[in-house]
Amino acid sequence: MSKTKKILFIITQSEMGGAQRFLYNFLSRIHGRYDILVAIGSDGDKELAVKVKNLGIKTTELIHLRRSISPLNDIRACFEIRDLIKSFKPDDLFLLSSKAGFVSSLATALLRYHPNRLRVIYRIGGWTFNDPWHPAKKQLWLNLERLSAKWKDIIIVNNRHDLEQAQKLGIKPRKGIVLIHNGLDLNKIDFLPRDEARIKIYEKISRSSGKIFQANIIIGAISNLYPTKGIRTLVETAEYFKNNENVAFIVIGEGEERKNLESLIVSRKLQHKVFLLGRIPEAHKFLSAFDLFVLPSVKEGFPWALIEAMAAKIPVIATRVGAVPEIINDGKNGFIVEPNNPPQLAAKIKEVLTSDHLYKEFSIQGHQTVLFNFSEDKMVKEIEALL
Where are the domains positioned within the chain? Predict the structure, then answer.
């Protein structure tokens, strides 16, 4: 009787961003077939840890693994992970996110494992060196990815842009780079009835603003409030609708940019127009409240929220980053705009809202795109083949 394969998953943060969403969906499909341990860094609101435990999967916290660069903590995390590998003795090490990817693969280099004994798989949801950072920081992360690639067997990317960029920049793991798109199971994903979702959104806005919410057209985004997500562009776009009381912009999500965004909203006198609702559990359920979904990112891998909106039959507009051109056929199932371009984004929003034909076509074609091109079954099958 062959023994059950042991897999150690390591991820940097516990809040539900894209990498965490992928990991949870993947684990929900494969648990029971493998002996799994999930190690999670100490940053975040612990939502991922709770959800994974609810699947009946063992978890552990890596005290020193954190998102920000800290040489002392990073060295401690490296040895913390090395000790965990030695005690759990996994067959496969599955790494998610840039920080976990570098520190954990470095930990394997400190072990006396033969490469055939411990296989290292690294899934990246978007190269960190594409973030809107100082050039020196970008170069640092590029160097770290190049260096650590030789400690990894396989790197999984979720969009063609990242694949081609890795090939061009010389990021070369031992066995190669594989492109596997994200996928959804449309039979499992659920949305609130539109009226119920809108009532709950209206209540949240009214409580936070102290005023009765009156707009009947909601332009929405579901996004962590990080610089890479381009929410500043969405706020600036709202200025083009300043005198239209029927249109409001809402963002579901939380993050380090909140104070800056709140200051921008006040400075542009958009308190009646743009609302930051904070983190809402299972935020995708509220997509049915939106009339239009906007992804204004300056950097992405393969955005879950975008295909969730398309699955909900909500028309979408997204920036030309990451996998977006692989998801949206511009003008057919949504619009693509350039990053950091509020006038262009505002024009496309107006075009969708004033055209019944476009609105219906984007809704139908978007749903069909997810159904036929981005299924969870396909994603899971392709990744499991690598284990």
Answer: 6-179, 194-373
Query: pLDDT value at position 311?
Result: 96
Q: Assess contact for 323 and 251: CB atoms under 8 A.
A: no
Residue 43 confidence (pLDDT):
84
For residue 245, what pLDDT is reported? 87
All residue ranges of the chain with pLDDT < 50 are 1
Q: Tell how many helices (H) and how many strands (E) occur in the chain.
A: 14, 13
Exposure string for 120-132, b = 16+ CB within 10 A, e = fewer: bbbbbbbbbbbbe
Q: How many angstroms from the chain centroid is the CA of residue 37?
A: 22
**CATH of the domain spanning 6-179, picked from 3.40.50.1220, 1.25.40.10, 3.40.50.2000, 1.10.10.10:** 3.40.50.2000
pLDDT of residue 112: 66
pLDDT tens digit sequence for 102-135? 999 999 988 865 555 789 999 998 898 988 888 9
Q: Can you tell me the distance from the alpha carbon of 99 to that of 67, in angstroms, rounded to the nearest whole number?
A: 6
- Which CATH code for domain 194-373? 3.40.50.2000
Which residue has tokens 């912009």? 249
**Tokens 């260096």 map to which residue?**
147
Beta strands in the chain, from DSSP E residues, in sequence order: 6-13, 35-43, 58-62, 92-96, 119-124, 154-157, 176-179, 217-222, 247-252, 274-278, 292-295, 316-319, 335-337
